[in-house]
Design brief:
The protein has helices at about 70-75, 120-130, 135-145, 160-175, 190-210, 220-225, 245-250, 255-260, 350-355, and strands at about 25-35, 40-50, 55-60, 85-90, 90, 105, 180-185, 210-215, 230-235, 235-240, 265-275, 275-280, 285-290, 300-305, 310-315, 320-330, 335-340, 345-350, 365-370, 375. The strands form four sheets. It has a six-stranded mixed β-sheet, sandwiched between helices. Strands 13-12-11-14-20 form a five-stranded antiparallel β-sheet, with no helix packed on it. The protein is α+β, with helices and mostly antiparallel strands. The longest helix has 18 residues, at about 190-210. It has nine helices and 20 strands. The protein has two domains: about 25-250, P-loop containing nucleotide triphosphate hydrolases (Rossmann fold), CATH 3.40.50.300; about 260-375, OB fold (Dihydrolipoamide Acetyltransferase, E2P) (Beta Barrel), CATH 2.40.50. A hairpin with a 2-residue loop joins strand 9 and strand 10 (about 235-240). Helix 2 packs across helix 3, helix 2 packs parallel to helix 4 and helix 3 (about 135-145) crosses helix 4.
Length: about 375
């Protein structure tokens, strides 16, 4: 039985990676940084509250400078909060050093040791922890198996593709059996097809292991594809926390509606309200949408309708009449800019193989999936 730590053929029985699903809670978390103007401070994270249930994968999403990476770094211990608490299973870890937090992290840059083999990279942290030799060999091999890397264990990082390097980085994180996994834009260096494949792999592994995870990305599609919930941030403040479908279909404010996907904002006037429905006058036509507004609403009030481009449909019997002013063929869909009643809207046609591709200047009729239209308070000052 061979147990030398040189990446050879290990015949030992592999033990499963032991993971725990723990809860994480950020309470009134604040992080301020000093600026050149000594009288002022920059508030990167502003009194945020966030609860991550055991085994969940939560994604922080927002524009550059919104505070998502700072939040991740505070949980990792690379930054200490100005104020507030970080609870893991009810214990406040806000003042603990990173090596005392039992947290694994997967970086954008992979951060692999170029002079070590794949196996040596994965087992390195276990050596530092002085784990028993047989156990660390078993755990390293198990992590390599999970990541489908056993055949590559004797290669150096420089001999691997970007996706393979990312799997090594993930194996190195889970081999330590962390309570929490943090991901700092881990797929941003990969090409589009590999990024799509790796996000599916990563999500599958996370669900199988059940590790509570916090993920940071700037990629909206990635966030929607892998997350149990998405946290939208802007200027250090949480704007909305919800499952991906609710973030997309029921944005809570204009910022969220604009940031996630594409949106048409069309002014309308409320004509009738009942328990289940709201009837509106929009673009000189009547539409009825579901009543799930989160703000006070009354008759004759002006509101903004949020209409995703795919909620419009080219329809010979449609009551909205417009003119094509731009056409963009995207393969699976054709995206049009269409002028309706003096307003330009974006329409995504996923049935272009039936409808044909419309020409600039062509007039057409549209209908809208009325129940999919969500409402926002008109001219509400955003946070």
């Amino acid at each position: 039985m061979e147990n030398q730590e040189d990446g050879g053929k290990y015949k030992m029985n592999k033990q499963p990676i032991e993971t725990q699903s723990v809860s994480v809670e950020l309470k009134q978390l604040v992080k301020k940084f000093n600026t050149f103007d000594k009288e002022n401070e920059f508030t990167a994270v502003d009194h945020i509250n966030l609860k991550i249930n055991p085994g969940e994968l939560i994604t922080l999403l927002g524009p550059s400078g919104c505070g998502k990476t700072t939040t991740l770094r505070m949980l990792a211990g690379f930054e200490f909060p100005t104020s507030g608490n970080i609870f893991v299973e009810g214990n406040d870890i806000a003042k603990l050093r990173p090596n005392k937090r039992d947290i694994g992290m997967v970086f954008q840059s992979y951060a692999l040791f170029p002079h070590l083999t794949v196996f040596e990279n994965v087992i390195y942290g276990l050596k530092l922890k002085k784990i028993d030799k047989n156990e660390r060999i078993n755990r390293a091999n198990t992590a390599l198996d999970i990541m489908h890397l056993n055949e590559l264990k004797n290669r150096s990082p420089g001999q691997l593709s970007g996706g393979q390097q990312q799997r090594v980085a993930l194996a190195r994180s889970i081999v330590n059996e962390p309570k929490i996994l943090l991901f700092d834009e881990p797929l941003s260096n990969l090409d589009a097809k590999l990024r799509e494949y790796m996000r599916e792999e990563l999500r599958s592994i996370q669900k199988r292991l059940g590790i509570t995870s916090l993920y940071v990305t700037h990629d909206q599609i990635e966030a929607m594809a892998i997350s149990d919930k998405i946290v939208i941030m802007n200027k250090g403040v949480i704007q909305q926390i919800d499952p991906p479908h609710k973030i997309y279909n029921n944005p809570i404010n204009h910022f969220v509606a604009e940031f996630i996907g594409k949106s048409n904002f069309v002014e309308a006037t409320v004509k009738r309200i009942d328990k289940d429905n709201i009837t509106l006058s929009m673009l000189d036509q009547k539409i009825t949408t579901s009543n799930h507004v989160s703000f006070p609403i009354k008759q004759e009030q002006k509101v903004d309708c949020v209409i995703r481009p795919e909620f419009w449909r080219i329809d010979h019997n449609g009551k909205f009449k417009g003119k094509v002013i731009n056409t963009m063929f995207l393969g699976e869909s054709v995206e049009y800019n269409i002028e309706l009643n003096g307003q330009t809207i974006t329409v995504s046609d996923f049935e272009h193989y039936i409808n044909g591709i419309k020409s600039i200047g062509e007039e057409l009729n549209l209908s809208v999936r009325e129940k999919s239209v969500s409402l926002l308070e008109k001219n509400k000052e955003e946070m």
